[in-house]
Amino acid sequence: MPHDIEPRLLRAFTAVAEELHFTRAATRLHLAQQALSRDIRRLEQRLGTELFTRTTRQVALTAEGARLLLYARRILAAHDELAAAWDREDRPLLVDISATTGTAHRVLEAAREAAADREFVARFHSGLTGAAAEILAGRLDVSFGRLAGLDPAVRERLAHRPVRYEPMAVLLPDDHRLADRPAVALAELSGETLYAAAGNPATAEWTDLAERLFAGRGIGIAAPFPEIDGDEEFVRVVRKRGWSVLASADFLDVPGMVLRPLVDPVPLSPVSMVWRRGLRHPGLDTLRAAAGQLAARHGWLERPAGTWLPAADEALMRGRPRRHPDQPGVTGTCPTGHPGGGGTAHGRSRRTR
C-alpha cells in the first residue's frame, strides 16, 4: 500500500464516491471531467485495484472502493483540520454574504463595527451548496444559508450556528394580478410558475426548499436556467422573462417589480452561519458573536406561530449546542419535527433573497 497518496486524489475519489456521477463530482470540485477521470485512474493504479464499476448508465463503488471511502473521509477531515490549525490568524476572513442586503450582510456589518481592526472580506457566491464546496476546499471561510439542503457527508465536515428564521416572499411584476395585495397567501399562487434558481447547481438547497414548499399547492417551478451572476444581470433576466420569483423578505429592489410577503402559512427560510470544522480565527469568533447578538436583539430564532418549515430544517435549527474542544457553541441536531413547515432563492449571487 503506497504511503504517499496525495490528498487531492483522495478528495477526487471522495467526490465521485459521494455523487456516484463524474460530471456532478467534477462540478463540485471545479475540475474538468477529463482531469477528474485522470485522477481516479491514477489513484486506482497507485492502489492496484478498481474503485468504481462504470457503465454507460451508472457509477458504483466496488467493495474496495467502499472500504477506501471510510479511510479517505477521515484522512481528509484530519487534513482540513491541520490546514485550519496553521491558518494565519491575522489574514482576512473570507465571508460569503451573497448579496448586499439580508441577514448575512447585517451580520457582517455588525462584525466589522465590533472589530474595526480586523479585515472581513465579502464574497458573493451563488448559494450555500456552491459555497460549502469552496469552504471545504479552503477557498472560503464562512457562508450563510440553509444547512439542511446540503449532502449529509458535506454537513459532517462543517460547523454551524443557527442565525434566523427568515420569512419568505414573492417578487411579482407590478402588473401581476396579485401585485396590489399587501401580502400573498400561498393558495393564491396556485397555477403560477415561480423562478427558484432551478438549473444552478450552486443553489440546489434553495430549489429543494421551493419544491418542498410548492408540493401539493399547484405551484410550478420555472424551467432550469443557467446561473445568473450579479444583481444587475439578475434584474435584467427576470424582467425580460417576466418571471415571478420566490425570494426572502429582505431582498434587493427590482424596478418594475414588487416584493410581497407570503402568508397562510408564512414559509420560513432557515439561515445558519457555516464554516469549516476546526477553523480557528479571531474574526470567526467576532462574526459568531455578532450573529448571536443580532438574533437575540431581533428575535430571529423565535419561530412565530402559523409558519411552515420542513422537519429536517427545524431539527437542525433547534439542535442543542454540542460542545467541541476547538469550537465552543457549535450546534448539533435533535429530532424535532413540524407539520407543514421553509429558505432564500437566487440563480444570481446566492439564494433569491
From TrEMBL:
Transmembrane segments: none annotated. Residues 328-337 have a biased composition (Low complexity). The keyword Kinase does not apply. Residues 319-353 are annotated as: Disordered. SUPFAM superfamilies: Periplasmic binding protein-like II, Winged helix' DNA-binding domain. The keyword Transcription regulation applies. Residues 5-62 form the HTH lysR-type domain. Keywords: DNA-binding, Transcription, Transcription regulation. PANTHER family: HCA OPERON TRANSCRIPTIONAL ACTIVATOR HCAR, TRANSCRIPTIONAL DUAL REGULATOR HCAR-RELATED. Belongs to the LysR transcriptional regulatory family. This is LysR family transcriptional regulator StgR. The lineage of its organism: Bacteria, Bacillati, Actinomycetota, Actinomycetes, Kitasatosporales. The gene is stgR.
